[in-house]
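Contributing new records

If you add data, match the layout below exactly. Sequence lines come first and carry their own label; structure lines follow with theirs. Keep one chain per record. Anything else will be rejected by the validation script.
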Amino acid sequence: MASPESAQNTSVLGKPTFCVITGASRGLGRSLAVELSGSLGEGSRLVLTARSLSGLEQTQALVNKTSVSVKVVSGDLEDSDSYHNLFQGIFSDITPGVFQHALLIHNASSLGDVTKRVVEHRDAVVLQKYYTTNVTSTITLTARFLQIFPSCDVTRTVVNITSSAGFTPIKTNSLYCSGKAARDMVFKVLAEESPEVRVLSFSPGAMDTEMFEYYRTHVGDPEVRTLLCRLAEDGKLLKPEFSAQKLVQILEENSYKSGAVLDALGRFEH
C-alpha cells in the first residue's frame, strides 16, 4: 500500500474511507455527501454534521441509496463549549486499521452580518460568535481529526471550502471575507507543517443555494447587490451538484499541490 508521503497522483478515493462533511444539511454539503458516497470504497463511513437534524436526515436518506455507512451528528459550531460532545459524536466507534483513508471536508460556514461596513461593527460578542463558528471550530476540528488519525498507514486529506472573498475585498462583507482569508491561511500553514497530509482549499463558485439567495437580498452595499442580482438573472449561478462533482474529480486525480486554493471553474489557483 502506498504511504501517505507517496499519495500524490494516486487516487485516495475508492478505498475504505472515514469521511466527515460539515454543513451537510443542505446546499453544497448535501451534494458533496451524495456525490462522494458513490466514490468511496466498500466499508467506508460518512459522518454528516450540521445544526439542522431534519436537514441531515434528508441528506442521509439520499446517501442511504449507496452501500456507504452513514451517521448524522447535529451540533452548533457557534457554541465552543459543545465541541467536546460534538467531536465525540463524530469520532466515536472508530476501529483502528479499518480505514485506509481519512477525509475531512470543512463545508460549514456562515455569511455573518453583510449589511454593515467595518465602522459599524461595534458588538464584540457578535464578532466573537462569528469567528468561533467559522474559524475556531475549523481549527479545533482539524486538530482532533489529525489526532484521531495519526499518519501511520492512513492517508489523510483535509478540504476547506473557501471563496474568492478570501482574497477579494467586498464592501459590507468584512466578516465573511476575513473569515475565509483566515481559514485559507490556516490550511496553507497546515500544508507546510504537515507535508504528509493532503490539504486543499476549494472554491465552489457562486451557487444557486438558499445561502446565495439570502446574501443577494440582504447585502448592504448596492453595487454588490446589483452584481449578485445580475449573476442570478443571467443564469450564471452554478448548481451545487456541479461544484460537488468538480471537487470529487480533483480528489480522484489527486494531482494538486498540497495547500493550494483551487476554483471549480479553473478561474484561479493560489
